[in-house]
Structure formats: C-alpha cells, structure tokens
Amino acid sequence: MTGPLFSTPLVVVPGRPVPPSDHDRPTTWREKVGILRSLPKLLGLVWDTHHGYTATMVVLRIVRSVMPVASLWVAKLIIDTVNQAPAHRATTPLWRYVGIEIAIVLVGEFLARASALVESLLGDLFSNDVSERLMRHAATLDLAQFEDPAFYDHLERARQQTTARIGLIAQLLGMAQDTLTLGTLAVALLAYNPWLLLLLVAAVFPSFLGETHFAALSYSLLFRRTPERRELDYLRYVGASDETAKEVQMFGLAPWLTERYSRLARRYFEENKRLSVRRSIVSALLSVVSTVGYYGAYVVILRRAAIGAITIGLLTFLAASFMRSRDLIQRLLLSASDVYAQTLNLQDLFAFFDMRPTILSRADAVPVPTPIHQGFVFEDVGFQYPGSERWAVRHVSFAISPGERLALVGENGAGKTTITKLIARLYDPTEGRVLLDGRNLKEYDLASLRRAIGVIFQDFVRYDMRFDENVGVGGIETSRQYLETSNAAHADAAPAPTVLSPIADAAERSLAASLLPRLPHGYRQMLGRRFTDGVDLSGGEWQKVALARAYMRSAQLLILDEPTAALDARAEYEVFVRFAELMASRMAIIISHRFSTVRMADRIVVLSNGEIVEEGTHEALVARGAVYSELFEMQAAGYR
Predict the structure, then answer these.
(1) Per-residue pLDDT band at 152 (split at 50, 70, 90)
(2) DSSP 3-state assignment of 145?
(3) Cα–Cα distance between 40 and 457 in angstroms, integer?
(4) What are the b/e assignments for 403-427, b being 16+ CB within 10 Å?
(5) Cα–Cα distance, 387 to 148 (Å, whole number)
(6) If you count Cβ atoms within 10 Å of the first and of the last residue's Cβ in the chain, which end, N or C, has fewer?
(7) Angle 194-224/165-192 helices, nearest 10 degrees?
(8) Do 94 and 81 meet the contact criterion of CB atoms below 8 Å apart?
(9) Domain extent listing, the chain
(10) Phi then psi for 377, rounded to 5 degrees?
(11) pLDDT of the residue at 563
(12) Element (H, E) at 561
C-alpha cells in the first residue's frame, strides 16, 4: 500500500497531504526567512517543559555576557597602573585591580558551570517531553498513515528532533549573549574609530552568506536521502539481529546484505563528499577575506599607538576588544548559519505535530450502547486502501447480531481482515456505510467504540515486556495501576505486588499460565530477548499470551484473526472449549483457515476477491457444493 500521506515541511494538509520533493529546499529570501517561524514554536516548547530552568538559563546567559568586557577593562587598568607607577614600588590600586580580575574570572567560571548544569537538566527534560508528545500524537493518527512508507520517512526525521534540540536553544542564547558582549565592545571601538567595526563586519559577512547557502544544500541532501538512511538502518538490523540470524546464516545472506549495504552507503557517502569538498573550498577562499580585513583594522590600531594617541593599556584593550569582536562576529554569523540549518530540520518536528487524522469523533458523538441491541450491519460497503486502485472489499452487505458467532472464510487477500478494521473504525469505508444499532459508526465516540471491541490480530505484537504486562495491555484500563505499581517496586527493588486477579484469570483461560512453571520469575518474567534475563517463546506460546489479552477485555464484540494458527492440536482443542465460554454472551467474528475453528460459528461468510460469494451454516455450505465446500474438501483431504 502506497500513496501520499503527508506534506512538505512547510504545508501540512490533513488527510491526504502531498509528499515532499527535492524542490522543497527554500530558494528565495522570503522562503528562507519563513523557515525561522519554527523558532518561536521551539521556544514555546522549551518554556512549557520547565519555566524555572528556562528563566534561569536566560538570566545566567545575560549575566555572563558582560564578563568578557569587564575582564578586558580591568586588564587595561592594570597595565596603565603598572606603566604609570614608580619603578621601585607597587601601588595599592594595582593589587585591587588584580583582585577584581581574579573575582571576575572566578565568578565567570561559576556562572559557566551553573549555566551548563541548568542547560543539561533542561535538555534532558525537553527530550523526554518532546518524545512523549510525539508518542501521544502518533497514537492519534490514522492507521493508513502508518501503513505508508513515506510516513516513516517523515516520522524518522521527527524522531531525530526529539534529542539535542535543546542545543539549538542554548545556541540561540549563546548568540544573544555574544550579541550583548559585542554591543559593549562595539561602543569602545566606535568611540575611537568607527571604521574598525565596519571592517570587521565586512570581513566576516561573506563567510556567513557562504555558510547559509551550504546549510540549505546540506538539509536538501539530508531530506532527499531519508529513505536511503532508513534502508541502511534496516539492512544493519537484518544483518545483525537475533530475529533474522537463523535465516541469514541458513540462506547465506550475509555477503548479499553486506554488499547491498556497502553500495547504498557508498552512494550516500559520495554525494555527501562532493558537497563537503565544495563547502571546504569556498570556506577557505572566504577566510582570506576575513584575514585581510582583520589585519587591515589591526594596522589602524597600531598606527594610533605609534604616534602616542593612545596609552599602552588602551592599546591592549582595543587590540583585545578588536580581536574578541572579530571572533564574536564570526561566531555569531556562523552560529546564525548553523541555527538556520537546524531550523530547517526543526520544521520536520512541527510538520509532524501538524499532521491530523481523518478518523475522529464528532463533537456530538454518542457512546456505544451497553448492551448493544441490534448489532453491526454492513450496507453495500466498499473500501480501497490509500494509493491503491484495487478494491479490497466491494458491495459487502451482512449483519451480526448480539450473541452471534460469525466466521469469515476466504483465500489470502479476500478482504477478511479489512472487514474487521472497518468494524473497529481503523478505516472508514470508501463507499457504503457500517451501522451499529441502526446508527452510522461515524456517529459514535471513537474511544467508546474501541473499548467495546476486542481484537487479536494475526500479526499480534510480541511485546518485549514482562509476562504480566504482555497480558495486562489487553485491558489497560483495568491493569494500569497494578502495572505502574509493579514497575515502581521493581525499580526500587521492593517486593512485587500480588499479580492482579484479572491477569491471572486471563492467563489461565488462554492456557498462557501453562508457561509459568518454566519462567523463573513467574508473572514478572521478561519476555523476548531484547532485555537482560529475557526468555523467548515459541510462536504457539506467544499466541497463548496474545489470546490472554482477549480475555482481559469485557468487550461486546470479539474479533479473532487466526486465533489458533500457531497452536498444536491438543492446545487448539483446549482453546476451543474456552472460546465457547468466552463468546457465550458476546458477538464474535472469527477469521481462520482451519475449518475445525470455523465450524464453531453460527454463520459463515465466504469472501472471494473482496466480495461475498456465499453465506450460511457449515452444513448448508458443504451441502451446496460451491466455494466453501471445495475449500473444506481440500483441507479434509489432507487428514485422510
């Protein structure tokens, strides 16, 4: 499934945005200035992260900005005092000035370390806060967006902005601090010779233009190469992962994967190298202009000292101020260039936050009734996945009533799973409508609808978490407090709380509890190999854990997509018995290729190429001798 699902970093259109292109790099000055609109948003995020730390960071930077000027002026006073004092004895003012200079240096060191501490703490909080915002926002987006490859390019760039963005704030504050320092130094330089400051600005301004130009080019390269960088990450994962190691070794894939990675990495490296070489050459040429301007201004100062127009102390002060001003201007311009480059990347974060889902609850949405009275009805429903011209389902009409068990049967790609996604409003129909108790599904509160439905998908998630967490996520409203308490106890090395009874009951009924004797830590056992002491499970064992999630929910409709595909015959039979209990008073939709499972249903719907071709009981469909009968006989023949 492919198709455009998000926009350029500058324009985000909800629902069906336009994918970015190589031409999205800003070219006009208006576009380049427009990029800076992201900075106030960033400042707002930082302020919201922690008011106290943010205010302290600003105050410390302001105070630090006057320290260099104060230090230079005291050094000028010391030199003039030494030059004017009698040769045979020191003067009291001299030592007073030395003491003041030492105090300034010590205070400056203290302020610098305090500033670094505050910015470090704020940086950690900011990274955590933005990561949480990203996770919360991602949870609101449409499933269709997560199933589009272009979305992952955008999500990857947004994720990269969750770390180190506080560095941009520190850099902006550093620029403000340098600007204040430069302002005080500029007063002194302008008082003695205005041309000194003008020479400095003229010397370093070309470097600023060059750096800004190449910053835009670098962003363009980074933007265009996002898919390649994601592919490189994936190839690294496939080539060195416990989940892929068996096939990589058995099929001898390492040479092919390594060569594919190498070719892609070399192509990316070569393009980056060409840009880096161009940038270095231009920067070197522009540095010549800076050097000529610097020494031209330095000659002016030396000539005034040579004719006695200024004292030795003032010569030292002006020379140091001039050198410091040159460094500050150059640093400011280069920092501005870097800030511009980072702001280009920053757009991706706010563009992601600007993305909006199309599947939402209406303002006047009503909760799903408890209990449901009439059930679900599909009326001539058709659906196409975004970017696809093929109909996943078309002209689908059927109903499921409270207490009824319905089975969906058909070959792969027939549209079975699509129907369950439409019921749960993970998608909305392209045509037709789905009703619940006579009302369009779009009229119900989305959260209420999702709570009323329990789903175990065929490609269920294997959470690298504890056993009780793997089960508890199926009913997070019930188990959340227990899981948080259990996690806190683990972090504090405190005794674990007694396992929540709904979790234990769900594990018993799904047969997942049969795994406990071989789990050293019982319900607190870490599953999967990602973390220390984790225990991996077989496919059938993972499926038992996933089934336990279905038992955690008091859902009115239960959807089971291939619920016993990985179970052995004995475990499948035992699960059937429990299914009957679980589904006794609920609606249930079962998707399965196993006819032993399908026969549990009260009614069977047979799909082919996205359309319903048969409907009825198992006995009636077998007697009809059509599609269902053919599929049943093919599977039964394998057991004879």
Answers:
(1) low
(2) helix
(3) 43
(4) ebbbbbbbeeebbbbbbbbbbbbbb
(5) 9
(6) C
(7) 160
(8) yes
(9) 38-354, 363-452+555-640, 465-538
(10) -135, 125
(11) 66
(12) strand 557-561
| Alpha carbon distance 214, 116 (integer Å) | 30
Model-level pTM greater than 0.90? no
Same CATH fold assignment for domains 38-354 and 363-452+555-640: no
Within 10 angstroms of residue 200's Cβ, the number of other Cβ atoms is 26
User: Of residues 560 and 608, which shows the higher confidence score?
Assistant: 608
Write down the pLDDT at residue 67.
85
d(CA 149, CA 234): 13
Q: Which range, of 29-43, 257-271, 339-353, 512-526, averages the lowest pLDDT?
A: 29-43
d(CA 417, CA 433): 17
Look up residue 82 and give its amino acid. Answer: V
Q: Are 145 and 7 in contact (CB under 8 A)?
A: no
| Contact by Cβ (8 Å): 594, 569 | no
Helix (H, G, I), strand (E, B) or coil at 347: helix
> What is the Cα Rg of the chain in Å?
34
H or E segment and range at residue 613: strand 611-616
Q: Strand, helix or coil at 615?
A: strand
Q: So what's the pLDDT on residue 582?
A: 65
Q: Which residues on adjacent β-strands are paired with residue 433?
A: 379
Q: Give the chain's length.
A: 640
Amino acid identity for residue 424 in this structure: A
Q: What is the DSSP string of 488-546?
A: HHHHTTPPPPPPPHHHHHHHHHTTGGGGGGG-TTGGGPBBSSSSTT-B---HHHHHHHH
Taking the C-alpha atoms of residue 259 and residue 101, their distance in angstroms, rounded to an integer, is 61
Instruction: Say how far apart CA 338 and CA 219 lie, in whole Å.
Output: 11
Report the alpha-carbon distance of residue 474 to residue 434 in Å, rounded.
Answer: 25
DSSP 96: H
User: What gap in Å lies between CA 175 and CA 178, rounded to an integer?
Assistant: 5
Tell me the C-alpha distance between 15 and 13, whole Å. Answer: 6
pLDDT band (50, 70, 90) for residue 90: low
Question: In the numeric block, which tokens belong to residue 320?
Answer: 């140091």
When the candidates are 1.10.1040.10, 1.20.1560.10, 3.30.565.10, 1.20.1250.20, the CATH number that belongs to 38-354 is 1.20.1560.10
Please give the DSSP secondary-structure letter assigned to residue 129: H
Burial (CB < 10 A; 0-12, 13-18, 19+), residue 498, is exposed
Report how far residue 591's alpha carbon sits from residue 158's, in angstroms, rounded to the nearest whole number.
37
CA distance 223 to 220: 5
Superfamily (CATH H level) for 363-452+555-640: P-loop containing nucleotide triphosphate hydrolases (3.40.50.300)
Other CB atoms closer than 10 Å to residue 262's CB: what's the count? Answer: 11
DSSP for 379-447 reads EEEEE--TT--S-SEEEEEEEE-TT-EEEEE-STTSSHHHHHHHHTTSS--SEEEEEETTEEGGGB-HH
Q: How far is CA 40 from the centre of its chain?
A: 21
Model confidence band, residue 9 (pLDDT cutoffs 50, 70, 90)? very low
Sheet of 439-440: strands edge to edge? 393-400, 376-383, 431-436, 439-440
More reliable by pLDDT, 10 or 464:
464
